[in-house]
Design brief:
The chain is an alpha/beta fold. It has eleven helices and seven strands. The protein has two domains: 5-157 and 184-213 and 276-285, Vaccinia Virus protein VP39 (Rossmann fold), CATH 3.40.50; 159-181 and 216-272. 46% of the residues lie in helices and 15% in strands. Helix 2 (11-35) packs parallel to helix 3 (54-62). The longest helix has 25 residues, at 11-35.
């Protein structure tokens, strides 16, 4: 994803998404902390895709003595985090997660953490491989080789999102080949797939939690299903439809599918009120 794409995603839209993603992000931090204490004497965190800084603030609050390098591809997001003045322990850097070399000279990181970011990266598999390389380098410089070095990632579970949008596209009569995925096709949206990505990169003791972010009835999720969320994954999915039919007709189709549970192409295969947003929380260590 380009920095321009990120900057076009307003912080207001990001903040609304944050209300859904914050609880599972905290869960991911707990999993990472269990594998290797985030408040240990040598703990140091590299955060990928810090966005507006909610995970950065959570980490700084819970582990005030742990250095954090918070990074994002978007200069605009980093400016917002900078204005928060979170902690002297927090430093910021503009960074594309597919190339972590610029961050390596800053510290030997014990943890690399990221939430709701990886599936929108240009090469998500490279992100995991880069994380392994950086953590392995850090471990090589550690006097205690029994210490665990941890990658923790929060990733959207795509199934219901794609099911819903496929049905909307079917309502509009758009051919299936023009229905884009919610996120990078290189990133699996299921537990088996992400486990394999971690293990192929070299991580062990991989743990995964599947969490439902919402029960489908909150204001935030209602907006999500009604095309009111403007995050990069959804913008990408909607682009072809909006260009061909216009936003008003697209919103009307989404509302119809949501309200009626119509079996469009691909089919919802469940009642609209049973649709859910979910995330996978994945941690692994070396």
């Amino acid at each position: 994803m380009s920095s321009n794409a990120e900057d076009s995603w307003g912080s207001h839209d990001y903040d609304r998404t944050e209300q859904l993603t914050k609880p599972p992000a905290i869960s991911m931090v707990e999993l990472a902390h269990q594998l290797s204490p985030l408040d240990g004497n040598s703990a140091s965190v590299l955060e990928l895709g810090c966005g507006t800084g909610f995970l950065t603030m959570e980490l700084a609050h819970r582990f005030p003595d742990t250095p954090i390098l918070a990074t994002d591809i978007s200069e605009g997001m980093l400016e917002k985090v900078k204005r928060l003045k979170i902690s002297p322990q927090v430093n910021l850097m503009q960074l594309d997660a597919v190339n972590l070399k610029p961050a390596e000279g800053k510290a030997h990181f014990t943890h690399i953490l990221s939430t709701a970011t990886i599936q929108f990266c240009s090469d998500p598999l490279k992100v995991v491989q880069e994380a392994y390389r950086v953590l392995a380098t850090s471990k090589a410089h550690c006097s205690d080789q029994s210490q665990e070095f941890v990658l923790g990632i929060g990733s959207w579970n795509n199934a219901d999102v794609e099911r819903f949008y496929h049905a909307v596209y079917g309502e509009l009569g758009i051919p299936e080949k023009f229905t884009p995925p919610f996120s990078s096709s290189a990133w699996p949206g299921d537990e088996t797939g992400v486990r394999q990505v971690f293990e192929n990169a070299g991580f062990r003791h991989v743990k995964i939690e599947q969490l439902v972010l919402d029960d489908g009835r909150s204001e935030q999720e209602s907006e999500f299903w009604h095309w009111e969320f403007d995050n990069p994954g959804l913008v990408s999915m909607r682009q072809a439809a909006v260009e061909q039919f216009g936003i008003d007709r697209c919103k009307a189709a989404a509302a119809k599918v949501y309200a009626s549970g119509r079996e469009g192409r691909g089919g919802l295969r469940k009642r609209p009120e049973d649709l859910s947003l979910g995330q996978l929380q994945i941690v692994g260590c070396i």
